[in-house]
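TICKET: design request
STATUS: open
ATTACHED STRUCTURE:
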């Protein structure tokens, strides 16, 4: 059983940098040179989005962990700062 090869096969990765490859109808692929400005911008955007997703996830878990009973207990038994924060 033979499969059609949909992957690129290159002889030398050095010669393919910044080459434009059109594989199928409507598909366009442009390779980015490693350590170029565009590469650093892409890495920065990916890092920012990953950190932001982690932050939002942590904040959501923290917010969902606060239930009404804990807030009522802090209103009755907490310090002045906890009472004002629970209101």
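STATUS: resolved
RESOLUTION: sequence designed for all positions
ATTACHED SEQUENCE:
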């Amino acid at each position: 059983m033979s499969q059609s090869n949909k992957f690129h096969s290159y002889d030398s990765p050095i010669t393919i940098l910044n080459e434009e490859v059109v594989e199928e109808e409507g598909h366009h692929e442009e390779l980015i040179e490693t350590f170029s400005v565009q590469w650093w911008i892409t890495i920065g955007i990916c890092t920012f989005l990953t950190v932001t997703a982690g932050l939002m996830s942590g904040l959501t878990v923290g917010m969902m962990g606060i239930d009404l009973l804990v807030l009522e207990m802090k209103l009755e038994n907490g310090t002045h700062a906890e009472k004002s924060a629970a209101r």
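CLOSING REMARK: The two ends are 69 Å apart (CA to CA). Residues 36 and 42 are 10 Å apart (CA to CA).
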